[in-house]
Each structure stands twice: as structure tokens, then as C-alpha cells.
Design goal:
Elements lengths: L7 E9 L2 E6 L4 E6 L11 E5 L7 E6 L5 E5 L5 E6 L3 E6 L5 H14 L2 E6 L7 H16 L3 E4 L8 H8 L3 E5 L6 H8 L3 H11 L10 E5 L5 E4 L1 H4 L8 H6 L25 H7 L5 H13 L7
Parallel strand pairs: 3-5, 8-9, 8-11, 9-10, 11-13
Antiparallel strand pairs: 1-2, 1-4, 1-12, 2-3, 4-5, 6-7, 12-13
Helix pairs in contact: 1-9
Length: 302
């Protein structure tokens, strides 16, 4: 059969909207267009594709089964996939911690069955008092079994440990703007700008890379998927019962509430509130849970 019709496996390493950049087994990449019938292919997808004739775009003809999918819900309640086959969320924060946002990301990881790692960046800016306060604040997360790393993209502190953690895995950096996700990526990928340029050139676009989703192979092994949409990702299409499951230390108490539909927000004989009074669940986490609960769309809060 002609070479252009040969079906081969590939990895989607860039998503420019209509155009996908697919990396073949030999490391070369080709711009492709996905067939309408297969649904939306995204960065991190393993796909089957066929090369186009000459300079023509190739065609993605199938998406292989995904082991995980990060999707966002648009204003109309429609789910839009962002990236696929992720192993872990790297939740980046600055020394001034926003607990509610950290917990939001940890819930996302729990509900999607992903690993989650907390990375406190900009430690070069933290004074002694802040460092001590941080140690107390983060102790609770460690006690729950979350891995925690203190790093500085500027001074390179903690980067070798972070690199070891990213090896052999596909990771996504999430966190609010201003915590230094981009500077961390630059520190881990010194040729980041060159690679972005190469990806956009290979796609035939030469622009729009700032809004695109891109997958980078790290020098020490592992992949990072990055895009503004993924970085600022928030999970809203969940129900109250699911939300409680996303707080891992709540799970052993959830069946002991008096009411089966208890949402742990002041109901009588709530086992979660009782566990908090006994110090088995931290007040900060319960308050964080309630803040997320109250921000859920009304129909989910039932």
C-alpha cells in the first residue's frame, strides 16, 4: 500500500485547534487533521494516523483508549477535553498559600485517579517567619500522604528532586497565576522558547502558540503538558457527594452521618463535622470543602 495510507501509531504533542502535531515513533512530527467521526483528539493522546501526500497534512483516524482525561465544562455545560493520559497534577503555589485553591486541585486529582504533588515555588522570597508558618500549614498535607516540595525556579533550589519526580510520568502544572509555573517550566526546560518556536513552525502556523496546548519531553525523562487553559484549570461539573469523596481524609467518616444525603454543612449528627471537632479532620480542610461546595452550581448542590 502507498506510504501515505500506512496507519501508524503516534503521540499528539501540540494542539493548535484544527491542526494537531503528531509525533511518530522516530521522533519526527507531522501536522495532521483529525477525522470528524473520532471526536476531539488532544495533547497527550495516543493516536493512529496516516501521512498526507507530499506536504499535505496527515490524518488522525483513531484515538487509542485514554487512561485519564482532563476536561473543562464550558458555560453551556458541555465538556471540552483539555489533555489526556496524565499521571499527576503538580500543584504549584507560592509561600503565601491559597488553601482553597490547593484543595480544589487536590480534589480534581483524587476524583480523576491522578497523583498530586504540592510544589511551593519562590522559596527564595520566603523569610524565616514565613518558612516556619509554611512548615506548620503544609504538615497537614504531608500527614494525608501528599508529597511536598519546596523549590525556587530562580535559585534552582529543589529542582533535582522535582526532576526525579517528573521522570517516566506525564505531568501537568496547575495553580493560580503569579505562582511561577512558567518560570519553573523554563528552569526545567532551558530551551523552552526554542522548542515552542519549533513546534509552531512544524505545525505550519508560526503563531498562536501562547494559546495552544503543548507537550514537552523533559531532558531527564518524563513529559509536561502545558497551556493557559490547563494551567488555570478548575473543576466545576461535580456533585456534592463526589466532592466529599475528593477529600481523602473524609472518606472513612462519610457512611456514619445520620442522613444519607448529608453534605456536611451543619446538618445534625454529621460524622465529618464530629471528626473535625475531635481533631481527626482539620478545620481548614472542612472550611475549604464548604467553600467549594457553596460555589458549585445550584443543581449540583443537592
Amino acid at each position: 500500500e502507498p506510504a501515505s495510507l500506512m496507519t501508524r501509531p503516534g503521540l499528539v504533542i501540540a494542539n493548535f485547534g484544527q491542526t494537531l502535531l503528531v509525533e511518530a515513533g522516530d521522533g519526527t512530527s507531522r501536522p495532521c487533521v483529525a477525522r470528524k467521526s473520532i471526536g476531539q483528539a488532544v495533547c497527550g493522546d495516543r493516536v493512529l494516523w496516516q501521512a498526507g501526500r507530499g506536504d499535505a497534512h496527515g490524518a488522525v483516524i483513531a484515538i487509542e483508549p485514554r487512561r485519564s482525561l482532563l476536561a473543562r465544562t464550558d458555560a453551556r455545560g458541555k465538556s471540552r477535553p483539555l489533555c489526556a493520559n496524565i499521571d499527576q497534577l503538580i500543584v504549584v503555589t507560592s509561600p503565601a498559600i491559597n488553601h482553597s485553591l490547593i484543595d480544589h486541585y487536590l480534589v480534581t486529582a483524587e476524583l480523576l485517579g491522578l497523583g498530586a504533588v504540592l510544589v511551593v515555588n519562590k522559596m527564595d522570597l520566603a523569610d524565616e517567619t514565613q518558612t516556619m508558618k509554611l512548615r506548620d500549614e503544609m504538615y497537614g498535607y504531608r500527614a494525608m500522604g501528599y508529597e511536598l516540595h519546596q523549590v525556587s525556579a530562580r535559585t534552582q533550589r529543589g529542582l533535582p528532586e522535582l526532576e526525579a519526580l517528573l521522570k517516566d510520568r506525564t505531568s501537568v502544572f496547575v495553580g493560580e497565576s503569579g505562582v511561577g509555573k512558567s518560570s519553573l517550566l523554563q528552569a526545567l526546560l532551558p530551551d523552552h522558547e526554542i522548542r515552542v518556536g519549533a513546534l509552531s513552525e512544524a505545525s505550519g502556523k508560526g503563531r498562536h502558540t501562547t494559546t495552544s496546548t503543548l507537550l514537552f519531553h523533559l531532558p531527564h525523562g518524563g513529559d509536561i503538558i502545558d497551556s493557559p487553559g490547563v494551567r488555570e484549570f478548575r473543576l466545576w461539573n461535580i456533585r456534592a457527594a463526589e466532592l466529599a469523596q475528593g477529600f481523602r481524609e473524609f472518606r472513612s467518616f462519610l457512611d456514619d452521618c445520620r442522613f444519607r444525603d448529608c453534605v456536611h454543612d451543619g446538618e445534625p449528627d454529621c460524622a465529618v463535622s464530629h471528626a473535625c471537632e475531635l481533631g481527626k479532620i482539620s478545620l481548614q480542610r472542612l472550611e475549604s470543602y464548604r467553600a467549594i461546595l457553596r460555589a458549585l452550581p445550584a443543581e449540583e448542590y443537592d
